[in-house]
Amino acid sequence: MSDLLERLRERGWRLTAQRRVVAEVLDGDHVHLTADEVHARAARRLPEISRATVYNTLRELVHRGEVLEVSTDGRAKRYDPNAHRPHHHLLCSRCGSMRDVRPTGDLLADLPPSQSFGFTVSEVEVTYRGVCPDCAG
Amino acid sequence: MSDLLERLRERGWRLTAQRRVVAEVLDGDHVHLTADEVHARAARRLPEISRATVYNTLRELVHRGEVLEVSTDGRAKRYDPNAHRPHHHLLCSRCGSMRDVRPTGDLLADLPPSQSFGFTVSEVEVTYRGVCPDCAG
DNA sequence: CCTTGCTTTAGATCCTGTCCAAGGTAGGGT
DNA sequence: ACCCTACCTTGGACAGGATCTAAAGCAAGG
Ligand SMILES: [Mn+2]
Ligand SMILES: [Mn+2]
Ligand SMILES: [Zn+2]
Ligand SMILES: [Zn+2]
Predict the structure, then answer these.
(1) CATH fold for the domain made of B88-136
(2) pLDDT for B16-55, tens place per residue?
(3) Closest approach of chain A CAs to the CA of B122, in angstroms?
(4) Does B3-80 match B88-136 in CATH topology?
(5) Domain ranges within chain B, ordered by starting residue
(6) Which of the residues A10, A28, A64, B94 has the least number of beta carbons within 10 Å of its own beta carbon?
(7) How far is the CA of A19 from the C1' of C27 (A)?
(8) Given CB atoms, is A50 within the 8 Å cutoff of chain B?
């Protein structure tokens, strides 16, 4: 994720300890943390970091397309660093764990013009729900 | 919707004026009201009805599978009486208006076994986002 | 009718997320 | 190396959505 920070710095983003730590926390595959989880992990490395800064940083990363914001029902949104290859989500109805998935079909094409009601459709979001192997017992 | 109320009464649901009014408000096609919108409309007919009762009634209707709960990003959930024929949603990014849609493909089948990560997938929810004709100007 | 257990109600409370004013600091300019 | 200043961070207030509570109300079976 250090190339991410470098990229953003070149675009005029000030490189602060807080932003560095948030970026570190968000590194990895199948990472889908809530803002408060990001805050808790960031605070291990930088105890004074505030919730407001975590929210600010996440909002900017989302706005710049570096992080994906995934809204899950009524609960807290989750933040996903895997923003460069589009994908969808598989969500466990019991424990809430989340995996990235890549369906085969062209889901946008699955919506025929007769079903578009004059909308200019630009994006499709898919959530598959089920029970994960750990919860299956 | 009166058969709905009858059905529920037979299952031990007490028939109150409040529940009757909420059911009436939720009648129709392409109805996707927020809880507060339901409350506002219900209050026209029954001024003393409380927000808590609207929330309680909606929760129960959802729990009994008579109404669908649709969560839209950070905003208030919407309640959809069209629960008996499964469908997906087309959502305007600007004004938030919502339409029911029925994609052609088998979206569950679009998730190949190699992408299931051992989950027992039971449900798929799709949200198409775009700009509605009214907002297109 | 009565009774009883389910319902309703207002208001408190919780959770997520945003806003604010005050103080701090990255990093370009010198 | 040191300033400056525009940008950043902070804690706490705030807001909207939704749930919870305890007291009062009422549907409906007996
Ligand atoms: Mn993801
Ligand atoms: Mn619908
Ligand atoms: Zn699970
Ligand atoms: Zn619109």
Answers:
(1) Dna Ligase; domain 1 (3.30.1490)
(2) 999 999 999 999 988 999 999 999 999 999 999 999 999 9
(3) 5
(4) no
(5) 3-80, 88-136
(6) A10
(7) 16
(8) no
Q: Say how many C-beta atoms besides its own lie within 10 A of residue A136's C-beta.
A: 12
Q: Which residue has the tokens 């932003």?
A: A19
pTM: 0.89
Q: Chain-wide mean pLDDT for chain A?
A: 90
Q: Is the CB of B35 under 7 A from strand D?
A: yes
Q: Class assignment of domain A3-80? A: mainly alpha
Residue A90 to chain B, least CA–CA distance (Å): 8
C1'-nearest nucleotide to the CA of B13: C6
DSSP A38-93: HHHHHHHHSTT--HHHHHHHHHHHHHTTSSEEE--TTS--EEES--SS--EEEEET
At a 7 A CB cut-off, the residues bordering strand C are A 9, 14-17, 34-36, 51-52, 55, 59, 75-77; B 12-14, 16, 18-19, 46, 48-53, 56-57, 74
- Whether the CB-CB separation of B36 and B55 falls below 8 Å is answered with no
